[in-house]
Amino acid sequence: MYCTRCGAAVGDNAAFCSSCGQPLNAEVQTPAGAGAIPAPAFAAPGVSVAAPPMTAPIATVLAYPAQVVAAGPYAGFWLRLVAYIIDSAILGLGFILLIGLAAAVVGAGFFRGLGQDITGAENVFAPFVVLMILMFSFVALAGGWIYYAWFESSQYQATPGKLALGLFVTDMEARRVTFARASGRFFAKIITGLIPLFIGYIMAGFTAKKQALHDMIASCLVLRRT
Question: Quick one: three-class SS letters along 7-64?
Answer without folding.
Answer: CCECCCCCCECCCCCCECCCCCCCCCCCCCCCCCCCCCCCCCCCCCCCCHHHHHHHCC
